[in-house]
From TrEMBL:
GO CC annotation terms, alphabetical: nucleus
PANTHER family xrefs: SERINE/THREONINE-PROTEIN KINASE DOA-RELATED, SERINE_THREONINE-PROTEIN KINASE DOA
CDD domains: PKc_CLK
Segments forming domain Protein kinase: 31-348
GO molecular function, one term: protein serine/threonine kinase activity
Name recorded for this polypeptide: Protein kinase domain-containing protein
Domain of life: Eukaryota
Organism from which the protein derives: Coptis chinensis
Length: 349
């Protein structure tokens, strides 16, 4: 822990537990605050100058609220655990140190570029070229395979948690339009605050909504395959610029899955209709559109099509990519491909 970690400054908090800082001030004697890189429910990420290493770093300053402090300590333990292994740089963010400052847990990371989500959003949601999607997908699956080999489930895979290593980009022009593309394709997976070991207690709900697997929604129990489902959703989004399942309602989400991927397997419908998700079923079939929350919801689902049609609108003649997506997005988690198996798929070769 930094020897200056408990030195207090005049900066306080904003009333919600966020650290109230000023640009140019010190976060202990070692780190000078240069800019704010991001903010979330957990706290803020600040760009700082590390005087000791003479290098730029990203410091995650966690809100001074017990549940976020506890989550931060769990994330530190997992990051340090990942860092102890030979393949610790397998496209996973590296923790450099951590300290406490004015009741805030501060985690120091290597400084990386923007997330794949932020880059795409600033690029008017322009799809990434399929060759970039292939390279991103390969690295993402390598990091997921590495994490799974260590008996960890990430549980919150999404484009916001995949960062480009470099912030540099280039302009790609064509006859019809122009777009920005990353100058380098290297990425790293971040945010292990929700990660959990396979033998630990599993909460009922995990993953951000758009990337949540069907077994989680149906309350059927989840494990490593829930990460694989998220990877499938991510790759679709990168190649189309659109979320595959853009919804906030469980029944609508399940109806979207059936529209894009086909009916729920009989055994999942049977178990779901007898458990906590029984309100979504009638005679062991999805109660749709009868139980839809609105006509607009019905129209939203009807606008969708089979997966290969949705992909073909953006990427033509890539049957191997569509085949990979179907394997990643197999509704039945017991039949879903693993990260190691996915890396052997023809799409990557």
């Amino acid at each position: 822990m930094d020897s200056q970690s408990r030195k207090r400054t005049r900066s306080g908090e904003d009333g919600k537990g966020h650290y109230d800082f000023n640009l140019g001030e010190n976060l202990t004697r070692r780190y000078k605050i240069l800019d704010k890189m991001g903010e979330g429910t957990f706290g803020q990420v600040l760009e700082c100058w590390d005087r000791e290493r003479q290098d730029y770093v990203a410091v995650k300053v966690v809100r001074s609220i017990p549940k976020y402090r506890d989550a931060a300590m769990m994330e530190i333990n997992i990051l340090e655990f990942l860092g102890k292994h030979e393949d610790s740089d397998m496209h996973c963010v590296q923790i450099r140190s951590w300290f406490e400052y004015n009741n805030h847990v501060c985690i120091v990371f290597e400084k990386l570029g923007p997330s794949l989500y932020d880059f795409q959003r600033k690029n008017n949601r322009c799809p990434y070229h399929i060759d970039l999607v292939k390279e991103f997908g390969r690295q993402l699956l390598e990091s997921v395979a590495y994490v799974h080999d260590l008996k960890l489930v990430h549980t919150d895979l999404k484009p916001e948690n995949i960062l480009l290593v470099s912030s540099e980009y280039v302009r790609i022009s064509s006859r019809y339009n122009g777009r920005w593309e990353p100058k380098e394709s290297k990425i790293k997976l971040i945010d292990f605050g929700s990660s959990i070991f396979e033998d630990e207690h599993h909460s009922s709900i995990v993953s951000t909504r758009e990337y949540r697997a069907p077994e989680v929604i149906l309350g059927l129990g989840w494990s490593y395959p829930c990460d694989i489902w998220s990877v499938g959703c991510i790759l679709f989004e990168l190649c189309t610029g659109k979320s595959l399942f853009n919804t906030h309602d469980n029944l609508e989400h399940l109806a979207m899955m059936e529209r894009v991927l086909g009916p729920l397997p009989t055994h999942m419908a049977e178990r779901g209709s007898q458990g906590g998700a029984k309100k979504y079923f009638k005679r062991e079939r999805l109660n749709w559109p009868e139980r839809a929350v609105s006509r607009e919801s019905i129209r939203t689902v009807k606008k969708l099509d089979y997966l290969e049609v949705l992909v073909d609108e953006h990427v033509r003649h890539h049957r191997t990519f569509v085949n990979l997506l179907y394997k990643l997005l197999n509704i039945d988690q017991s039949e879903r491909i693993t990260a190691r198996q996915a890396l052997e798929h023809p799409f990557f070769h």
